[in-house]
Amino acid sequence: MSHDRLMRERLSHILQEVAKAEHAAGRHPDAVTVELAVKTQSVIDVAAAASALEEMTGRRAVLGHNRVQELLSMIENWPPGAPEVEWHYIGRLQSNKMGQVLRTGALIETVDSAQTLTRLENRLEASSQKYPIYMQVNTSGEDTKAGCDPREALALARQIYDSQYLDLCGLMTIGTNTEVTEDIAQSYRKLRELRDQISHDYPRRDGLELALSMGMTKDFTIAIAQGATIVRLGTGVFGPRA
Description:
alpha/beta
């Protein structure tokens, strides 16, 4: 079987599983967006996956990048005729790389501290439009995970809400690293509850709901049951990384 055909079959299977999870949770069809996590993937494979995803869903593909240089390279080398996509940055946001990410216009999913917010605002002072970001929260409490402490999330949300330059569009987390379903579910439930509290205290001026970016290949159905609106899938689409 060709590589492209295998990738399309994986993607089709994932979309079926997403639909089943939506139905099981009593959610509307197409409530969840599949974000392609494209770390280490070639631009040709990613463009093919983006095209297939748009064809299957009728929606522009979302591409999540962990590495700034890969993001820059993929934008620069995006093939002629490939579909337009929505670029997201899902890696740790280093201060020396901020300017490069901002120039791409990619939505940043990993803002996790007041210090990072201040640095972003300093770089956006000349901007006439608010820059879209998600706040990353460490809902698992694991030291290996990035993200702000859930107890600090409301204060951080307030700072973003008051910002002239930043637009809080969603929240993001990485689930607990365990095989215990309820522990994984709890880490996602915590993000949903934070989203609900933030939406109540600091409602978006455009009335749109804050996104919940949570769930990866191994646990995306659990995340959907807890309210995920975006699931970030890499190996489930492209296969194991080399």
